[in-house]
Amino acid sequence: MPYKDSEPIFTCKKCGDCCKGYGGTFLTQNDIEAISRYLNIDTETFITNYCVMSGSRYLIAQGKDGYCIFWNGLCSIHPVKPRMCRAWPYIESVLVDVRNWEIMASMCPGMRTDVPPETIREIVKRHLENEKPDSPAATPARQSQKGKSLT
């Protein structure tokens, strides 16, 4: 069915495909604090038990099955899911190259592929402009060894 301007270009199917692989879920400091509060643990415990390092940033760890450790058929931290998860699939890489939408859509059944590239870019840009910026999680020297490293 051809795309109509009034139709959404993404509808989450709750399949969990975006919760597996793809380089991991980067966390902002706000994400770390919110998830820690939700789990009723301090941030240092959260980082030690649930995060890995990628360069200078924290990622949510993945289980042996490749899924986010908070995926259990549904997101177990959904009310406080990370900014990166909340934004999906309206992410900056689509503005860099709209073909990234096609690549992502090949792995995500909720993304429409019959939408003109200009429309995708316009909608993604609008979503990003409405999203409040959130700084990446800092890596204080005292915590730099806490999370498990990917490198």
Label the structural class: mainly alpha
Main beta sheet strand tally, sense and closure: 3 strands, mixed
The value of Rg in angstroms is: 17 Å
Mean pLDDT: 85
What's the count of strands?
Answer: 3
Helix content: 25-40%
Weakly predicted, low-confidence segments = 138-147
So what's the overall shape?
globular
Proportion in β-strands = 5-15%
Give the number of helices. Answer: 6
* Multimeric organization: single chain
Compute the number of structural domains: 1
Strand order, main sheet: write it out.
2-1-3
The helix-strand sequence is HHEEHHHHE
Distance between the termini: 45 Å
Concise overview:
The chain is mainly α.
Commentary on this structure:
The protein has one domain (17-146). Helices cover 33% and strands 7% of the residues. It has helices at residues 29-39, 43-50, 83-87, 92-96, 99-105, 117-130; strands at 51-54, 57-60, 148-149. The N and C termini lie far apart (45 Å). Residues 138-147 have low confidence and may be disordered.
